[in-house]
């Protein structure tokens, strides 16, 4: 009888052990499955809306990730920074400047301060352009820009909000270097857009006469040569665009590695950005 009880107990223990192992495997499988289908959330500066989709497509193809979920929110860098500080669950922040990622990296009291373990990185350098669909810019250059703006007293010029949008900050700095910003502001001829996408829309729909926009936006729409001039990079503060990984997970690290790779940088060059390598 004792042997029967021992045998039965041993059998029960083996069965329980097997069930526990099976449950352990099921849990691990569920976790791995959850990780593989987890959405990668990217907060991206508005100027990236023309180039980032193609980079994401190429990244998926190169890594056989056809079913991966990547969700991108485009807005001004300042607004995205504020959202992140408030606790928005982004995994990656791709800013249009270096200031906001640097502030996040140093943030001591923000909701993400304990999760940021990787330093900011530069992934692109933007170019500033002047765009118009109502004026021919064939003969225009930065030396004649002041005369054109001041002689056409009714012309409206749009720039992105300098407080929130790095392209707007560089546009303002350029106008200040040409001694134009103060006088144009006093005449209420500068129309401030929320971000660089809105600045482009104002100019593209002829709501204004001129718009300081991202050169990449003009490449994307294949703008005619007479519709824009690309400003010399030395004529305004460099638009170095930094990113930062907010949540230390494998998908975020893999994607940002791709952004900085030769393949990823080629997309930026083709889209009208300057090389950062």
From TrEMBL:
Signal sequence range: 1-20
PROSITE patterns given in the database record: PROKAR_LIPOPROTEIN
Family per record: Belongs to the bacterial solute-binding protein ModA family.
Binding site for molybdate: 77, 196
Keywords annotated in UniProt: Metal-binding, Molybdenum, Signal
GO biological process, one term: molybdate ion transport
Natural source organism: Psychrobacter fozii
InterPro entries on file: AvModA-like_subst-bd, ModA, ModA/WtpA
The keyword Kinase appears for this protein: no
GO terms assigned for molecular function: metal ion binding; molybdate ion binding
Protein's UniProt name: Molybdate transport system substrate-binding protein
């Amino acid at each position: 009888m004792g042997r029967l009880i021992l045998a039965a107990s041993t059998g029960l223990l083996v069965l329980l052990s097997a069930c526990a192992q099976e449950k352990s495997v099921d849990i691990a499988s569920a976790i791995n499955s959850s990780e593989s289908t987890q959405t990668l959330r990217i907060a991206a500066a508005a100027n990236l809306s023309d180039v980032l989709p193609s980079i994401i497509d190429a990244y998926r193809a190169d890594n056989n990730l056809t079913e991966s979920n990547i969700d991108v929110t485009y807005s001004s860098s300042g607004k995205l920074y504020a959202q992140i500080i408030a606790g928005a669950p982004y995994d990656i922040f791709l800013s249009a400047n270096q200031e906001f990622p640097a502030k996040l990296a140093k943030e001591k009291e923000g909701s993400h301060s304990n999760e940021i373990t990787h330093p900011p990185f530069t992934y692109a350098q933007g170019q500033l352009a002047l765009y118009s669909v109502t004026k021919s810019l064939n003969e225009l250059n930065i030396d004649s820009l002041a005369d054109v703006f001041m002689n056409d007293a009714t012309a409206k010029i749009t720039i992105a909000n300098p407080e929130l949008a790095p392209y707007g900050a560089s546009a303002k700095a350029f106008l200040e270097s040409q001694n134009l910003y103060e006088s144009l502001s006093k005449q209420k001829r500068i129309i401030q857009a929320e971000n660089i996408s809105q600045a482009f829309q104002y100019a593209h729909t002829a709501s204004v006469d001129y718009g300081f926009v991202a050169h990449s936006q003009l490449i994307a729409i294949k703008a005619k040569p007479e519709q824009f001039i690309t400003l010399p990079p030395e004529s305004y503060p460099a638009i170095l665009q930094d990113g930062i990984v907010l949540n230390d997970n494998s998908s975020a690290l893999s994607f940002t590695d791709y952004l900085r790779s030769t393949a990823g940088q080629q997309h930026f060059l083709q889209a009208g950005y300057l090389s950062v390598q």
